[in-house]
Amino acid sequence: MEKSSINPKEREELAATSAGESSENKQRASKERYTALLSRYTQYTEQIRHMQYLMRPFDDIHQIDLKGSELHRKLEELGAKLGKDTEDIGLDILLHEGNLREYGINAPLIGLSLVGLTFRYREEEERLK
Question: How far apart are CA 43 and CA 111, in angstroms?
């Protein structure tokens, strides 16, 4: 019978390192899923705005809105696992979308204070900076 060259303490350290890496991989995967959900949610909100612009029937818009609401719920669930609260998620949505059209703000340049930071909106870029 061959003896292992790894003593029990080293084996414990290797197991802890492996578990830590696994935890980091899970965290990274969760962040990637969260970002993908943010993108899908943004697509739904843009689709709803476009449908409203085209004056589509309420029922059509409502069906898309229900899907968007389900995505928002998933964002909240996954965000909570990542340590985010409702306000963090709302800010992530706003920053990911990069504009304030949903709120009826289409100014060439405005200042918006959020969490002690100031963002600038430029209409030509339609993004927060």
Answer: 25
In this structure, the dihedral spanned by the alpha carbons of residues 60, 64, 65 and 67, taken in order and rounded to 10 degrees, is 140
Q: What's the predicted TM-score (pTM) here?
A: 0.60
Between the alpha carbon of residue 21 and those of residues 13, 30, 83, 85, the distances in Å are 12, 14, 19, 25
Lay out the sheet containing 127-128: strands in order across.
Answer: 109-114, 117-122, 127-128
Any idea which residue has 């696994």 for tokens?
Answer: 22
Nearest-angstrom CA–CA distance, 70 and 90:
15
Question: Residue 31's closest CA among 87, 85, 91, 75?
Answer: 75
Question: Within 10 Å of residue 48's Cβ, how many Cβ atoms?
Answer: 19
What CA–CA distance (Å, rounded) separates 59 from 43? Answer: 19
Residue 114 and residue 95: Cα distance in Å, rounded? Answer: 11
Instruction: Tell me how far apart the alpha carbons of residues 100 and 49 are, in angstroms, rounded to a whole number.
Output: 12
- Structure-token match 């830590």, residue found: 20
68-103 tens-digit pLDDT: 899 999 999 999 999 998 888 888 888 777 766 666
